[in-house]
């Protein structure tokens, strides 16, 4: 099952609704994932997320937080 947040960050959702869809998916994800770090570790271990995807997600998160 594809991860909706990951799909949105990869731009797949941008074609279908842009930021509004992304924020809706993010809110749903916040409600279902209680421990984000644990979820990311699970995705890495299961192979659902590659190390490269993880690194890219981390860079995007840092940009959103205003970090370099």
Q: In words, what does this structure look like?
A:
The mean pLDDT is 78. The chain has four helices and no strands. It has one domain. The longest helix has 15 residues. The radius of gyration is 12 Å and the shape is globular. The chain has 68 residues and is mainly α.
Q: How far apart are the termini?
A: 32 Å
Query: Percent range for helical residues?
Result: 55-70%
Largest sheet: none
The overall pLDDT, averaged over residues, is 78
Give Rg in angstroms.
12 Å
Number of domains: 1
Low-confidence stretches: none
Which percent band covers the strand fraction? Answer: under 5%
What's the count of strands?
0
- The dominant shape is globular
The SSE order reads HHHH
Q: What's the quick description here?
A:
The protein is an all-alpha fold and 68 residues long.
SSE topology sketch:
Blueprint: H1 4-9, H2 18-32, H3 36-46, H4 51-64
Keywords:
68% helix; 68 residues; mainly alpha; globular; 0% strand
């Amino acid at each position: 099952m594809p991860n909706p947040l990951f799909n949105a960050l990869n731009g797949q959702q941008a074609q279908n609704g842009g930021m509004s869809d992304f924020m809706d998916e993010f809110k749903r994800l916040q409600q279902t994932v209680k421990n984000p770090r644990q979820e990311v570790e699970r995705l890495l271990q299961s192979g659902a997320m590659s190390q490269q995807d993880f690194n890219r997600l981390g860079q995007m998160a840092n940009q959103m937080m205003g970090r370099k």
